[in-house]
Here is the input.
Amino acid sequence: MVNKTCANKTSWEKAVEFHGHECPGLAIGYRATELALEALGSERSIDEELLAIVENNACGVDALQTLAGCSFGKGNLYYRDLGKSVYTIARRGDNNAVRVAVKYGTTFDPNFKSLKEKAASTATEQDRTLYHEAQQKRIKSILNAGTEMFEVRRVIIELPPPASIYQTLQCSRCGEGVMEPRARLKDGRVVCIPCGGEF
Ligand SMILES: [Zn+2]
Ligand SMILES: [Zn+2]
Here is the structure.
């Protein structure tokens, strides 16, 4: 269902490239997205038919952006600052949505943490190798995890309206352009928010 290869690069490799490094957090977001897309029966969002709501702004969100095609710039990625490892993907049109949550305690590995600490400070070559191996193993197990790590369920959500394109007005103070809904009126003149003194 999910297109795994494109231009000889797996979608995991693409996520790693976009994110800048390979890490367990990225793997969590990747697998959560994959499970959500599978449950939805959807492919990567070419335009805006899919939208995602993420409840954290950590590594995993980068995987979601590359794999689901829901991104900040396209306006189909919504960030709710709740500090939770929860990813919801919805499809416009039929209002289908799937919420994937990491089950508490399933991604924490105390052994990995001590290896990481060792590898960080006065690491020997062997410490670094051990850490690298443990990390690869952990990433692999996350990428293959199912319901033991992730809770996947269909939900009904209120879909945010599609991204709109607004007119750009000119701020009468700084002269820069400002998207119409963000423009303010001050003494009868159009100003941007910083010039209007709302900061
Ligand atoms: Zn990361
Ligand atoms: Zn201004």
